[in-house]
Amino acid sequence: MAGQGSVIKDIFAFKVDANIYQFMVFTVTWYILFSSTYGTNVPSGIFLPGMIIGCALGQVVAMICLNFDVFSNDEYDYNRSAFILLGCAAMLAGYTRMTYSLAVILMETSHSNEMFVPILFTIIISNQVGYKFTHALYHRSYRAKQFPIILDEPPKECRKIIA
């Protein structure tokens, strides 16, 4: 049985021979399993499953672009790894709200210096969209466990005392 890291490698390396519908089912299945195990005491991890979901979403977008003739088969072979990498960046940034550290992690794992600006742009967009809807995954986890968090602003009661 392969580990989660080898699933990511297989998606990048053309070792997964699947059509777009099979990739969509794969992505939805991983998302449901990831969502159902988060917050439980099951040691399933939250970083690698997010990477797998993001890679699969990037592959789906690349396949959609190929099906709608956005680019040819040769361009698909060349651009698909960029779509997978950007999908991974978007997914991880969307729920972890990591910024530069995520960009460095993805740069180190992909060995692709020319992808730094697209990765950074994708991370910024994904973070901003995520902030419009909810708090980061780790922030919600701290709140659920009732850990103290230093806020950006003092509470309203303290503002009256300070002023």
Describe the protein in words.
It is built from 8 helices and no strands. By secondary structure, the chain is mainly alpha-helical. The chain has a single domain (4-162), classed as Clc chloride channel (Orthogonal Bundle), CATH 1.10.3080.10. Helix 1 (4-12) runs parallel beside helix 3, helix 4 packs antiparallel against helix 5 (100-110) and helix 5 (100-110) packs across helix 6. The longest helix is centred in the middle third of the chain and has 24 residues, at 73-96. The radius of gyration is 19 Å and the shape is globular. The mean pLDDT is 84.
Summarize it.
Helix content is 71%, strand content 0%.
Question: What's the SSE pattern?
Answer: HHHHHHHH
As residue ranges, the low-confidence spans are none
Calculate the terminal CA-CA distance, rounded to whole Å.
62 Å
Oligomeric state of the chains in view = single chain
Q: Based on the structure given, which CATH architecture is correct?
A: Orthogonal Bundle
Number of separate domains: 1
Task: Give the averaged pLDDT, no decimals.
Answer: 84
Strand percentage lies at under 5%
What global shape is seen?
globular
